[in-house]
Amino acid sequence: MGQGENARAATGGRGSDLGPAFNDPASGKRNGPPATPFGRALPGPGEKSAVVWLSDQLPAMVHLLAPLNTLEAINQRRSVRSFCSKGISRETVRQLLAAAVRAPTAMHQEPWAFAVIQDRQLLKSISDRAKPLALAEMQRADCDAEVLSLFAHPNFNIFYNAGTLILICGQIANPMAVADCWLAAENLMLAACAMSLGSCVIGSASETLNTPPIKAELGIPDDMQVLAPIIVGVPDVAGKPSPRKEPRILCWK
Ligand SMILES: Cc1cc2nc3c(=O)[nH]c(=O)nc-3n(C[C@H](O)[C@H](O)[C@H](O)COP(=O)(O)O)c2cc1C
Known about the structure:
Blueprint: H1 3-10, H2 50-61, H3 70-76, H4 90-100, E1 112-117, H5 120-140, H6 145-152, E2 164-171, H7 177-194, E3 198-201, H8 206-209, H9 212-218, E4 224-233
Antiparallel strand pairs: 1-2, 2-4, 3-4
Helix pairs in contact: 3-7, 4-7
């Protein structure tokens, strides 16, 4: 099972965003670039047409478009679990962090701090360390067998091979830090969506990220904890937001 299919399994088969758009499922290789920047005029046997090739590329190119407005971003945001290999720049990360800290914060405490990891080797190493703990937690929670086998698979990357992981950390002693940091998290993810970037909370890595050796490795002080680990990258396939139930209204007096 490929990573995209694995990820699809993790989301109960819902995720149309999962799985690289232009991978060759038989060989596992990416289809090569087109003969011209606009694709080949006529596809050969088993090849994609230029139009299909270009439509595959669009998710990676839409960040060149104007940002979405607030309601568009709220309604279009979805968890993205499949990314282009090209990462995002430090400047883009700074823009996301600037959006995060615009969140409301109790008593204006701003009890957050951020760790940014873009070193792919380190991401892989954290993923490798996080998987056994996440797996044990899921076993305790009696999770679906398919999800368990996904986390047990040696090739599965808990960060879905995203090039950027942003950790929103909160002061442990501040009782409102959890609320503040999750508000910052949503701001960050909406800003990412508005900029045509994909994001996903990776709660399954939280336990590992809060172990003393990893906190020390990442420079997270003892009085802070990782609350919201969020991956960010350029989505490599277009996808639709997942459905929601109608809001349950308990009273409207
Ligand atoms: C606290 C929290 C933890 C999550 N942890 C994970 C995770 O470890 N791995 C993952 O693939 N998605 C994770 N997600 C993403 C959810 O699966 C996703 O938000 C949910 O299925 C709704 O889909 P949507 O975000 O596309 O609307 C997490 C989301 C939240 C809010």
